[in-house]
Fold CHAD domain-containing protein.
Amino acid sequence: MAYRLKHKDSSVGDAVRRIADEQIGKALASIEGTDRAGAVHDVRKRCKKLRGLIRLVRPAFGGYKDENAAFREIAGMISGARDAKVMQDTYDLLMKDYAGQVDRSSLGPIRRRFTMDRKARIEDGGVEDHLAEARTRLEAARERARGWKLDEDGWDAVAGGLEKTYGRALKASENARKCPDGENFHELRKRVKYHWYHCRLLEKLWPDMMATRQAAAKQLSDILGDHHDLDVFAQTLGGQPDAFGSSADVEVAIGLARARQERLEDQAWPILDRMLAQEPEVLGEHFEALWTVWRKHG
């Protein structure tokens, strides 16, 4: 049930169909449970992993564009309740980070407003409706996935997707360094996360090496995810400051968020520079050599 290609898979296409079926099955199981917040989180996570899966075989998979859009839309339709919770959590993490340095009581209206927004989203009943629609769409996707076909097999089926995704991460890193704004760092995070998924899928090529790359990509994903949440937090406050308390207190909160973002960037760069040290073609050649050894010895 692992999210990785296995030596016993009869083909890459067989592996992709197996993994897709497993991920969709887990998403459906979470919807059937009683934890609605957990279901929203899990469905979004499974959709991202599914998009990472098909992105690995993208050049060999004619259905990529439609399926990628389908999973993106499923995740998007249930994001509202999750987004409100993230703003609460971001505020709490900021207060913890700056404990003893700010007057938390003066910033209380910010937390209360985010709490009200979250309750409103929960009480409007939209979560259940969206999860029901997600179930319908996931069931249809599961049926389609059982018939997915790839035009290539073996290394040829994954080489193009691996290199293209890694190359986009490298380009996104260059863009974020030239223009370190929230949009560029968010794009970088997405590309890093896809490379993380690919290292998970190809873990068996060399488990020790892949574990190191996975750990680095996971750490970066967390750092850049917090960076994005802080950016949304600051933009939300700046977009409607009157809704969150006095203008002075809102400016303080925005300043705290921006300062925290800068520290996160300082943490991210050394890890990024190591993980993205190779050119895409060089990384592809290295992984191809490992693929050959893996197919020979298991």
Residues 134 and 140 are 10 Å apart (CA to CA). Residues 12-297 form a domain with the CHAD domain fold (CATH 1.40.20.10).
